[in-house]
Amino acid sequence: MTRPRLRHLAFVVQDAKRMADFYRDRLGMEVFHQDPDGSHFLTDGYVNLALIQQRLDGDVATGFNHFGFEVEDVDVTADRIAEAGVPRAVARATDRPFAEYRAIDPEGNWFDLSAHGFLPPGIAD
C-alpha cells in the first residue's frame, strides 16, 4: 500500500439490526461483528460499514458519523495531518478493535486511522 485507502464508513442508526439485515439480505454484505449495544459491522469484502446503534442517553444524532483510512504508518500520517493545521490524531477511546486513532479534517469531520485495517484482529482483509 503506497497511499491511504478508504476502507470504513459509519452511520448512527435507530435500528442497527434492521439496517444490518437490509444490507446483508438485499446487498449481500456480511456481518462480521456485533457489539453488546446492538451496533452491527458489515463488509462487502473491501469496504466495511459500521451501523452504530443510537442511544437515548447519547449525544450523537442519526446519520453519517465518520469514515476511516487504512494507512501504512499511523504516526507518519498523523504528522502529515497536523502539518495542515488541524489537531494531531489521537488514540480512540473505545474498546472496539477496528481503528487505533481518530482525527478531524479542516471542517471538523471525524475520520479514523488504522494500520491493521477495519476488521477484528484475526480476520484477514
UniProtKB/TrEMBL annotation:
<dbReference type="Pfam" id="PF00903">
    <property type="entry name" value="Glyoxalase"/>
</dbReference>
<keyword id="KW-0560">Oxidoreductase</keyword>
<dbReference type="InterPro" id="IPR029068">
    <property type="entry name" value="Glyas_Bleomycin-R_OHBP_Dase"/>
</dbReference>
<keyword id="KW-0223">Dioxygenase</keyword>
<feature type="domain" description="VOC">
    <location>
        <begin position="5"/>
        <end position="116"/>
    </location>
</feature>
<dbReference type="InterPro" id="IPR004360">
    <property type="entry name" value="Glyas_Fos-R_dOase_dom"/>
</dbReference>
<dbReference type="InterPro" id="IPR037523">
    <property type="entry name" value="VOC_core"/>
</dbReference>
<dbReference type="GO" id="GO:0051213">
    <property type="term" value="F:dioxygenase activity"/>
</dbReference>
<protein>
    <submittedName>
        <fullName>Glyoxalase/bleomycin resistance protein/dioxygenase superfamily protein</fullName>
    </submittedName>
</protein>
